[in-house]
Automatic annotation (TrEMBL):
InterPro entries: AB_hydrolase_fold (IPR029058), Esterase-like (IPR000801), S-formylglutathione_hydrol (IPR014186). Belongs to the esterase D family. This is S-formylglutathione hydrolase. Its EC number is 3.1.2.12. It holds the Pfam family Esterase. It comes from Aureimonas fodinaquatilis. The gene is fghA. Keywords: Hydrolase, Serine esterase. It comes from the Bacteria. One of its GO terms (molecular function) is carboxylic ester hydrolase activity. GO terms for cellular component: cytosol. Serine hydrolase involved in the detoxification of formaldehyde. The active site is at residues 147, 223, 256. It catalyses: S-formylglutathione + H2O = formate + glutathione + H(+).
Length: 278
């Protein structure tokens, strides 16, 4: 693992790191904020999955998470959203597919299946790397994210409730198998048979019996993607049917941007901190 940069912030350290990933078969960059802590002490870890077009950098620059992370003593990990590089297949003019649009799935279709394995990268390789290099309490992990990253966080939590104790999302894509901006990507990564997509769709995973202790979701009412892509009412219905506790906050006048995310970031970190206590 190479250290790209480190800087002191709120008493802790914000770092950016790069490593060769065997899962995605390319170099991956990620960022980690580690609050001030005692030597030998292990801290709870919260992974933030970003949305379409993002790298690790967007939330670092605009998410405003470090003050609350330091207060609650949470390590915050912010991975990239896809594999990248000259040898990674991509559609540079398409912001909803390829670089910046890994959708947190393990692609099964060639040529994407060689690199686009973000589900395994986030749930397996990255946590193992973090456990060796950072003061992580591996039994106290949470996950959250925005939009495509909200979809990633919720599907990962539903499939791994033994690993992740808490999950929340900002404006998540709750039913990607039906949303215009995710269907083409699912088809290319997972094939034309929509049965394979069920494993990466929050509403369908719940329909298929997956469960989680509860979700916190914030959604802006002026989000430009609300009706076509996000549709929180579908999540509400799925959670009600399955009796999964859902706190869904519809935030009047907020859009899809980091202005919205940063406004409610403290609430999300407090939600996770409560559930990630020793
Ligand atoms: N280029 C797009 C808009 C892309 C966009 O809004 N991306 C969001 C995530 S959308 C869902 O996953 C984002 O977080 N952007 C980065 C940022 O720093 O704001 C368009 O043309 O509409």
């Amino acid at each position: 693992m190479d250290v790209i940069s480190t800087a002191k912030a709120h008493g802790g350290v914000q770092g950016v790191y790069r490593h060769r990933s065997r899962t995605t078969d390319c170099d991956m960059t990620f960022a980690v904020f580690v609050p001030e802590h005692q030597p030998g002490e292990k801290l709870a870890v919260l992974t933030y999955l970003s949305g379409l077009t993002c790298t690790h950098q967007n939330v670092m620059d605009k998410g405003e998470f470090r003050r609350a992370a330091a207060k609650h003593r949470l390590i915050i990990v912010t991975p990239d959203t896809s594999p990248r590089g000259a040898d990674v297949p991509d559609e540079p003019d398409n912001w909803q597919f390829g670089s910046g649009a890994g959708f947190y799935v393990d692609a099964t279709e060639a040529p994407y299946n060689a690199n686009y394995r973000m589900y395994s990268y986030i749930t397996d390789e990255l946590p193992a790397l973090l456990a060796v290099n950072f003061p992580v309490a591996t039994t106290r992990q949470g996950i959250f994210g925005h939009s495509m990253g909200g979809h990633g966080a919720m599907t990962i939590a539903l499939k791994n409730p033994d690993i992740y104790r808490s999950c929340s999302a900002f404006a998540p894509i709750v039913h990607p198998a039906r949303a215009d901006w995710s269907r083409p990507a699912f088809e290319k990564y997972l094939g034309a048979d929509a049965k394979a997509w069920r494993d990466y769709d929050t509403c369908l995973l719940i329909e298929d019996g997956k469960r989680f202790p509860g979700f916190l979701v914030d959604q802006g009412t002026d989000d430009q993607f609300l009706e076509n892509g996000l549709r929180p009412e579908l999540l509400k219905a799925a959670c009600e049917t399955a009796r999964i506790p859902l706190t869904l906050n519809m935030r009047e006048g907020y859009d899809h941007s980091y202005n919205f995310i940063s406004t409610f970031m403290d609430d999300h970190l407090a939600w996770h901190a409560k559930r990630l206590k020793p």
